[in-house]
């Protein structure tokens, strides 16, 4: 342990130590630059996606302008492309999915976080998450051969008999259509909404619950207070689910019917933005046709990017609130 | 109210069991050794998904080679030095990227690669899958690296280790199990991807190992079988689905087992 | 000459000042103990000596910390080399997720101290021996360090610190998480190590300070109240405040 009298480690005035010091500082600097550059890669990818898709769809953007969003005709032969039926189909199927999935997901999350015993909640939570692991194309297959026949034979005739006066439930019950699409999307986004709502509920501080219980609130009243606290987080979860529903491709392509029509009836077939890309991309012969499809991709990208960003901000605002109150 | 919420929970799980049970029930009857090794054949002549299984593995392997290391590096960046404004932007964009529909990555790769080269290729398919993997791996890596206790980093710093060695020698190995499970989840996720492959890797009826040629995949094969009008092919779709879903659930359960302590 | 000489040290977490005008000299090959109520700044002070507080972005230091006559806060200081020279043992044992051997070898490797593989082995064994751990782990050097008991883990961390040939060892409540027997081993070890190293130890346990240290410094509310030889400190302190603390009137 006898320290070398010539050695002064602090300033590196030891034989060879000056080089070592430079190495350390240089190493840290290179490390930082490389890692930061890789981080920047994410931004570059996203920027490149916007740039490339804008450029590739420029023909269509130039020709149709904003009319692309309001045009109702989709005719590759005449070279006329309007996205409205697809936008309509996307919105209606997604909203339908949210209407079904939101209450169920919130219910599942409340049960798992607030009510179920831990030993039951854990495996159940895992099973619910497994729903998200099943590929979209598998849901599509299942929807074609199981869900659609079920709807056609049992559900839709029943709806027609009881609520047939509503415009949503008119027309022929054939299983394949907007309603099946909405239901299959609902199944697919339920685990996603559930997971976020669970996180949000778990983030509500225990003190909140205890305060409510101490005031003599019942368990359900306490849950309501917890829910009120988690409001914007649940909103974030719903928006996140919306983003997923808008972007879902395979399952909905296989079940929604793929007809670019705007119809009030949920029994009728529809078409979504993602579906038209999946279906027609490899068949797009003309330059304008391809350009219009890529513009669809660009719209899908921008919409989901904004929707997801919004969801993230909403969810973040909750964790920030709870962080402050703790 | 508990009855209602419990009904929701058990109902959702019932759907899961229904879906999985139906796949098992329908798929098992068409499953055979020939099915697992043969290439697709015209209706009535049998055929299988051998080339699609190999294709999926090749696509997945290539995508993992790019997506997993990049995701780990970016995740490490976010955890170790990502608290500034730049890191915050990268994190936000990466998180948002997770929610971008996979088909959009397909469109992007089509425009960048396929359109330029003039043909569908394995590389294009793998690239689109890699782009999907990057933000997923990034996200889990950041979480796992952040879990490494500060005391462990300080222990290494106190020995005179420079920051980069602390990260490389101590932090990453300590977080490795978590990072690996995150990577496996990303693999499971893209194993089930169909949409981005439709017009990048496209599909193929043959065994193929060339990266500049179209490549078959299980998911695209399932899709093609499913939307066909033939009963025989529908049966094949179910059998292929059984194989695919078994693989994916297997990965998920392994991951669950590895991360059990976390819950 | 003192090994460590601190003058007019002020330390800030953002706007809050955690240390006020600390001045203290620590002679070579002595054990100095820092005592005081929790939150008094004794750990913060210890961490200024090897610039461990650099990892906190909002931390700021004023004043001088001279080690061997060089100010460690000079801009051209190589912090990594400083920390090699001024080793540290933490409150909670923090072995790396590696084998016992690799835990001790790590510091030797990164600093490139060993000449060859045999030398590396020798150094690891010596460090483990100096930390009074070799006998217990000789047969399982390649097993995970997490398999050791708490006291063994802490001695492993001491061995790890010794392996890089430091001159000063900082110990931040090294025995606070240990049972009495493990604590006693650590204390014996400190007395043994004093022959070769300068040691600064933070402890909340006054008996421990009395047992192991040559000199004791009493901190309160971020100020250094008194430094004196341990003997004097515990029998006849200069300050009334010190006496009150030592006799248990507060704290």
From TrEMBL, chain A:
<dbReference type="InterPro" id="IPR011864">
    <property type="entry name" value="Phosphate_PstC"/>
</dbReference>
<feature type="transmembrane region" description="Helical">
    <location>
        <begin position="30"/>
        <end position="53"/>
    </location>
</feature>
<keyword id="KW-1133">Transmembrane helix</keyword>
<dbReference type="InterPro" id="IPR035906">
    <property type="entry name" value="MetI-like_sf"/>
</dbReference>
<protein>
    <recommendedName>
        <fullName>Phosphate transport system permease protein</fullName>
    </recommendedName>
</protein>
<keyword id="KW-0592">Phosphate transport</keyword>
<keyword id="KW-0472">Membrane</keyword>
<dbReference type="GO" id="GO:0006817">
    <property type="term" value="P:phosphate ion transport"/>
</dbReference>
<comment type="similarity">
    <text>Belongs to the binding-protein-dependent transport system permease family. CysTW subfamily.</text>
</comment>
<dbReference type="GO" id="GO:0005886">
    <property type="term" value="C:plasma membrane"/>
</dbReference>
<dbReference type="GO" id="GO:0005315">
    <property type="term" value="F:phosphate transmembrane transporter activity"/>
</dbReference>
<feature type="transmembrane region" description="Helical">
    <location>
        <begin position="86"/>
        <end position="113"/>
    </location>
</feature>
<feature type="transmembrane region" description="Helical">
    <location>
        <begin position="234"/>
        <end position="256"/>
    </location>
</feature>
<feature type="transmembrane region" description="Helical">
    <location>
        <begin position="125"/>
        <end position="155"/>
    </location>
</feature>
<feature type="transmembrane region" description="Helical">
    <location>
        <begin position="288"/>
        <end position="311"/>
    </location>
</feature>
<feature type="transmembrane region" description="Helical">
    <location>
        <begin position="175"/>
        <end position="197"/>
    </location>
</feature>
<comment type="function">
    <text>Part of the binding-protein-dependent transport system for phosphate; probably responsible for the translocation of the substrate across the membrane.</text>
</comment>
<dbReference type="Pfam" id="PF00528">
    <property type="entry name" value="BPD_transp_1"/>
</dbReference>
<keyword id="KW-0813">Transport</keyword>
<dbReference type="InterPro" id="IPR000515">
    <property type="entry name" value="MetI-like"/>
</dbReference>
<feature type="domain" description="ABC transmembrane type-1">
    <location>
        <begin position="87"/>
        <end position="311"/>
    </location>
</feature>
<keyword id="KW-0812">Transmembrane</keyword>
From TrEMBL, chain B:
<keyword id="KW-0472">Membrane</keyword>
<dbReference type="InterPro" id="IPR035906">
    <property type="entry name" value="MetI-like_sf"/>
</dbReference>
<dbReference type="InterPro" id="IPR051408">
    <property type="entry name" value="Phosphate_transprt_permease"/>
</dbReference>
<keyword id="KW-0812">Transmembrane</keyword>
<dbReference type="GO" id="GO:0035435">
    <property type="term" value="P:phosphate ion transmembrane transport"/>
</dbReference>
<feature type="transmembrane region" description="Helical">
    <location>
        <begin position="89"/>
        <end position="113"/>
    </location>
</feature>
<feature type="transmembrane region" description="Helical">
    <location>
        <begin position="237"/>
        <end position="258"/>
    </location>
</feature>
<keyword id="KW-1133">Transmembrane helix</keyword>
<dbReference type="GO" id="GO:0005315">
    <property type="term" value="F:phosphate transmembrane transporter activity"/>
</dbReference>
<comment type="similarity">
    <text>Belongs to the binding-protein-dependent transport system permease family. CysTW subfamily.</text>
</comment>
<dbReference type="GO" id="GO:0005886">
    <property type="term" value="C:plasma membrane"/>
</dbReference>
<keyword id="KW-1003">Cell membrane</keyword>
<feature type="transmembrane region" description="Helical">
    <location>
        <begin position="119"/>
        <end position="137"/>
    </location>
</feature>
<protein>
    <recommendedName>
        <fullName>Phosphate transport system permease protein PstA</fullName>
    </recommendedName>
</protein>
<feature type="domain" description="ABC transmembrane type-1">
    <location>
        <begin position="53"/>
        <end position="255"/>
    </location>
</feature>
<feature type="transmembrane region" description="Helical">
    <location>
        <begin position="170"/>
        <end position="191"/>
    </location>
</feature>
<dbReference type="Pfam" id="PF00528">
    <property type="entry name" value="BPD_transp_1"/>
</dbReference>
<dbReference type="InterPro" id="IPR005672">
    <property type="entry name" value="Phosphate_PstA"/>
</dbReference>
<keyword id="KW-0592">Phosphate transport</keyword>
<dbReference type="InterPro" id="IPR000515">
    <property type="entry name" value="MetI-like"/>
</dbReference>
<feature type="transmembrane region" description="Helical">
    <location>
        <begin position="7"/>
        <end position="28"/>
    </location>
</feature>
<feature type="transmembrane region" description="Helical">
    <location>
        <begin position="48"/>
        <end position="77"/>
    </location>
</feature>
């Amino acid at each position: 342990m006898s320290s070398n009298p010539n050695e002064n480690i602090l300033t590196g005035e030891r034989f060879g130590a000056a080089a070592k010091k430079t190495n350390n500082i240089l190493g840290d600097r290179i490390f930082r630059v490389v890692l930061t550059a890789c981080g920047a890669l994410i931004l570059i990818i996203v920027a490149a996606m916007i740039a490339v898709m804008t450029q590739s769809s420029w023909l269509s953007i130039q020709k149709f302008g904003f009319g692309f969003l309001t045009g109702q005709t989709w005719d590759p032969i005449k070279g006329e492309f309007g996205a409205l039926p697809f936008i309509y189909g996307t919105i209606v199927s997604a909203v339908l999915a949210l209407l079904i999935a939101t209450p169920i997901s919130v219910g599942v999350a409340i049960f798992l976080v607030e009510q179920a015993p831990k030993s039951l909640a854990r495996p159940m939570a895992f099973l619910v998450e497994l729903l998200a692991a099943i590929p979209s194309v598998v849901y599509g297959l299942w929807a074609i051969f199981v869900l659609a026949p079920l709807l056609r034979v049992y559900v839709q005739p029943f709806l027609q008999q009881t609520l047939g006066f509503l415009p949503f439930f008119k027309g022929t019950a054939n299983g394949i259509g907007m309603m099946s699409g909405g239901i299959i999307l609902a199944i697919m986004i339920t685990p996603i909404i559930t997971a976020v709502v669970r996180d949000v509920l778990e983030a509500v501080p225990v003190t909140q619950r205890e305060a409510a219980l101490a005031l003599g609130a019942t368990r359900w009243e306490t849950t309501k207070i917890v829910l009120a606290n988690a409001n914007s987080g649940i909103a974030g979860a719903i928006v996140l689910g919306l983003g997923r529903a808008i972007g879902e491709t395979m399952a909905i392509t296989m079940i929604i019917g793929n007809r670019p029509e705007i119809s009030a009836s949920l029994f009728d077939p529809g078409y979504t933005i993602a579906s038209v890309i999946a279906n027609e991309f490899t068949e797009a012969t003309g330059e304008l046709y391809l350009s219009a499809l890529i513009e669809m991709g660009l719209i899908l990208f921008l919409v989901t990017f904004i929707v997801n960003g919004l969801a993230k901000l909403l969810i973040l605002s909750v964790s920030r609130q709870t962080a402050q109150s703790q | 109210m508990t009855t209602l919420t419990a009904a929701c929970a058990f109902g959702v799980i019932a759907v899961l069991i229904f879906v999985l049970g139906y796949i098992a029930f329908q798929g098992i009857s068409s499953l055979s050794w020939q099915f697992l090794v043969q290439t697709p054949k015209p209706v009535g002549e049998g055929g299988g998904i051998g080339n699609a299984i190999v294709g999926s593995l090749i696509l997945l392997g290539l995508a993992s080679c790019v997506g997993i290391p990049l995701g780990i590096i970016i995740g490490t960046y976010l955890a170790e030095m990502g608290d500034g404004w730049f890191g915050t932007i990268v994190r936000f964009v990466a998180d948002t990227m997770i929610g971008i529909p996979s088909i959009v990555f397909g469109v992007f790769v089509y425009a960048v690669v396929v359109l330029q080269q003039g043909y569908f290729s394995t590389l294009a398919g793998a690239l689109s899958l890699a782009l999907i993997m990057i933000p997923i791996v990034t996200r889990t890596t950041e979480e796992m690296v952040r879990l490494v206790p500060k005391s462990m980093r300080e222990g290494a710093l106190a020995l005179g280790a420079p920051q980069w060695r602390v990260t490389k020698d101590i932090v990453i190995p300590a977080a490795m199990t978590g990072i690996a499970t995150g990577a496996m989840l990303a693999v499971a996720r893209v194993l089930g991807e169909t949409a981005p492959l439709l017009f990048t890797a496209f599909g193929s009826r043959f065994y193929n190992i060339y990266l500049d040629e179209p490549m078959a995949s299980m998911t695209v094969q399932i899709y093609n079988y499913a939307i066909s009008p033939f009963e025989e092919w529908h049966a094949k779709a179910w059998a292929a689905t059984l194989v695919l879903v078994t693989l994916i659930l297997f990965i998920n359960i392994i991951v669950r087992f590895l991360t059990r302590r976390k819950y | 000459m003192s090994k460590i000489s601190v003058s007019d040290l002020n330390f800030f977490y953002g706007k809050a000042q955690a240390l006020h005008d600390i001045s203290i000299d620590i002679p070579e090959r002595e054990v100095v103990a820092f005592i005081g109520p929790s939150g008094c700044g004794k750990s913060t002070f210890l961490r200024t000596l090897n610039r461990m507080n650099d990892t906190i972005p909002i931390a700021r230091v004023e004043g001088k910390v001279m080690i061997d006559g060089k100010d460690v806060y000079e801009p051209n200081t190589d912090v990594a080399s400083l920390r090699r020279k001024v080793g540290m043992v933490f409150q909670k044992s923090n072995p790396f997720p590696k084998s016992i051997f690799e835990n001790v070898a790590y510091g030797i490797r990164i600093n490139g101290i060993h000449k060859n593989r045999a030398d590396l082995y020798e150094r690891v064994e010596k460090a483990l021996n100096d930390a009074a751990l070799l006998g217990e782990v000789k047969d399982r050097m390649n097993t995970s360090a997490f398999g050791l008991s708490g006291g063994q883990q802490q001695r492993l961390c001491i061995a790890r610190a010794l392996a890089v040939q430091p001159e000063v060892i900082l110990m931040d409540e090294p025995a606070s998480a240990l049972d009495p027997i493990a604590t006693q081993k650590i204390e014996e070890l400190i007395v043994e190590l004093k022959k070769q190293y300068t040691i600064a130890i933070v402890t909340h346990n006054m008996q421990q300070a009395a047992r192991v240290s040559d000199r004791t410094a009493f901190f309160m509310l971020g100020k250094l109240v008194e430094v004196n030889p341990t003997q004097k400190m515990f029998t006849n302190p200069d300050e009334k405040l010190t006496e009150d603390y030592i006799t248990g009137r507060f704290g």
